[in-house]
Amino acid sequence: MQFLDDSLHPENMEKVVITVAPYGPEWMPADFPEDIPVTMQEQIDKAAECYEAGATVLHLHVRELDGKGSKRLSKFNELIAGVRKVVPDMIIQVGGSISFAPEDDGQAAKWLSDDTRHMLAELEPKPDQVTVAINTTQMNIMELLYPEYLEGTSLGNPATGAAYREMTVPAGPAWVEEHLRRLQAAGVQPHFQLTGIHALETLERLVRKGVYTGPLNLTWIGIGGGFDGPNPFNFFNFIHRAPNGGTLTAESLLKNVLPFNTMALAMGLHPRCGNEDTIIDQHGKRFGSVAQVKQTVRVAKELGREIANGKEAREIYKIGTWYKNADDTLTANGMAPNRKPGQKHVPLRG
């Protein structure tokens, strides 16, 4: 991404698209009963409350009545329909993991089968987005969950903690290409969840080959444990390499969420918050999803950023937009064109 002399002036920035992840699939409801919704109506109400607070993108997971993450696509369909009815302008972004929680103590925290994950393209009503990981990666969310944050929570259980520590994100080449094919055929936009520069480079290769032909909405995830760590230099390197025509959202963990969101807001990028990312504030006290959205709105306004409403967020994310081929996709996303046969030297950025 390019930064000119006036790029940090808020009048030259897009409006802020706030993503909220209020379903915290790694936590059990008893870990934060005041904030984690369980019944279908509670899950719908939580989405509406977050939208009213200023969030325009809902990162969606679903729970069963016993509090465990749901693996039933019918439950996803029900929640999507319920949210659509109450807040029709909110962008619904289904978490591509579906549910990676262990069924019982000591079981591995595994993502569902490739075939089941592909079926996210068949949800009805359709979500606006499904998050897509690039490259199979270790996802040890326990690496930065310090003991004082885990005390008295379900992740403090040694067996559960061990299961999450060994978790990986399965996103090999064949799965990614097939998943992108199915999502595009269904008119569902991928939102790319990227763990570092290596994932961004693989995504660029997919674009250059014409495997993906749409807008590039990216989230940089700085949570350590196989992903980039929460080091600002990792984040700034990613920003520097991200394409000019895409959007970029910051995602981190616990007390790192607010600093990275503030950096993103100051630079014209976008924030993500919610109890999937943190259940504590900077003082270590419980901090709910709606309160996090309201805090994000306050910080944005202090920096002079305007908050996008649902319709504006859809325009910024280019929901429903697709391109004809690799060349058009590269141009639309502000990327250098592919080298033509016989062409020498590096082409200028278009």
Could you walk me through the main structural features you see in this protein, from its secondary elements to its overall organization?
By secondary structure, the chain is an alpha/beta fold. The protein has a single domain (about 15-335), classed as TIM Barrel (Alpha-Beta Barrel), CATH 3.20.20.70. About 35% of the residues lie in helices and about 10% in strands. The protein is built from twelve helices and ten strands. It has helices spanning about 40-55, 75-85, 115-120, 145-150, 160-165, 175-185, 195-210, 230-240, 255-265, 290-300, 310-315, 325-330, and strands at about 20, 55-60, 90-95, 130-135, 135-140, 170, 190-195, 215-220, 245-250, 270-275. The chain has an eight-stranded parallel beta barrel with strand order 1-2-3-4-7-8-9-10, surrounded by eight helices. A two-stranded antiparallel sheet has the order 5-6. Helix 3 links the parallel strand 3 and strand 4. Helix 1 (about 40-55) crosses helix 2. It is globular, with a radius of gyration of 19 Å. It starts with 18 loop residues before the first strand and ends in an 18-residue tail after the last helix.
- Sheet having the most strands: 8 strands, parallel, barrel
Report how far the terminal alpha carbons are from each other: 13 Å
Sequence of secondary-structure elements: EHEHEHEEHHEHEHEHEHEHHH
Architecture per CATH nomenclature, i.e. the level-2 architecture = Alpha-Beta Barrel
User: Over all CA atoms, what is the radius of gyration?
Assistant: 19 Å
Give the overall shape.
globular
Strand order, sheet with most strands = 1-2-3-4-7-8-9-10
Stated plainly, the CATH topology is called TIM Barrel
**What is the helix fraction of residues, given as a range?**
25-40%
Helical stretch tally: 12
Which oligomerization state do the chains in this entry correspond to? single chain
> What is the count of structural domains?
1
